[in-house]
């Protein structure tokens, strides 16, 4: 398996590192992912997992906490969306069970679109926070609680959590995903760390797992993950031809 990793420029460290998967069919045979979810990847013309997907899928499907970096364009979005959607399976009236934090509105919207496509046959409800003042009526205690996945920028979410904690219940979150986490770190010394701890603390359930993704590696980020995540799996995919 070392060979398989080095062939695809995958560096992985952590305990009990599962073997990378190289074929979509292994998602179904080895990890019991529903064929209909896997078929959404095929429908988009994908023929094989990208290197980051090869290693992240088996890790997240085993519920491991993750810090991962891979170059821009290497398929990180599907790397976290597929196992996240697999775990949620079907709608439950528990409020949000997965949260994806993206640094910009554009990215959040892009992730929302990709997530909506993958969720098409699951009945799972995906939401994007747009207008802060609509949040209470949409997601608050009086609403129908029919939503499973929340995609948002950190500013908006933290603003809402600070304004009134009960507006959005994050206590049933099972996956907290932070995308482009290196860019969030850039936003100033106080910025990201403070925002992330507010979000992290609001995701207060016992089942919560966290996974952070970025294009570049950073020591700051690694330190934060080492201190705050349990049994961290650290995965890095190098650029091709190096
Ligand atoms: P990143 O977040 O790493 O920058 P994206 O998740 O935005 O990359 O994916 C980049 C492009 O690759 C997207 O157009 C996406 O649809 C496509 N893609 C993702 N996974 C695969 C795959 N397994 N095979 C082919 N294309 C893929
Ligand atoms: P982002 O795109 O990261 O959500 P924006 O520049 O769109 O950031 O601004 C969102 C921020 O503006 C919120 O985090 C909050 O601090 C502030 N904000 C947004 N809506 C309101 C509002 N209705 N009342 C007060 N502050 C608001
Ligand atoms: Mg991305």
UniProtKB/TrEMBL annotation:
Residues 57-235 form the Helicase ATP-binding domain. A motif (Q motif) lies at residues 26-54. Residues 26-54 form the DEAD-box RNA helicase Q domain. Belongs to the DEAD box helicase family. DDX52/ROK1 subfamily. This is Probable ATP-dependent RNA helicase DDX52. It comes from Hirondellea gigas.
């Amino acid at each position: 398996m070392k060979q398989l990793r080095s062939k695809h420029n995958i560096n992985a460290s952590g305990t009990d590192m599962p073997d990378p998967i190289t074929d979509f069919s292994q998602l179904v045979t080895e990890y019991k992912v529903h064929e209909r979810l896997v078929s959404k990847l095929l429908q988009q013309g994908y023929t094989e997992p990208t290197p980051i997907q090869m290693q992240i899928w088996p890790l997240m499907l085993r519920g491991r906490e993750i810090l991962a970096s891979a170059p821009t364009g290497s398929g990180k979005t599907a790397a976290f969306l597929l196992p996240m959607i697999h775990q949620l399976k079907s709608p439950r009236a528990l409020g949000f069970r997965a949260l994806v934090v993206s640094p910009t509105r554009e990215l959040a919207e892009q992730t929302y679109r990709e997530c909506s496509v993958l969720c098409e046959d699951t009945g799972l409800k995906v939401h994007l926070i747009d207008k802060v003042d609509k949040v209470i009526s949409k997601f608050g205690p009086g609403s129908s609680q029919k939503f499973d996945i929340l995609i948002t920028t950190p500013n908006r979410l933290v603003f809402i959590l600070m304004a009134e904690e009960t507006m959005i219940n994050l206590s049933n979150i099972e996956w907290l995903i932070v995308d482009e986490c290196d860019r969030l770190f850039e936003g100033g010394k106080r910025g990201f760390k403070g925002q992330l701890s507010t979000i992290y603390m609001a995701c207060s359930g016992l089942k919560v797992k966290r996974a952070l993704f970025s294009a570049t590696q950073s020591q700051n980020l690694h330190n934060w993950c080492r201190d705050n995540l349990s049994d961290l799996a650290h995965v890095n995919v190098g650029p091709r031809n190096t």
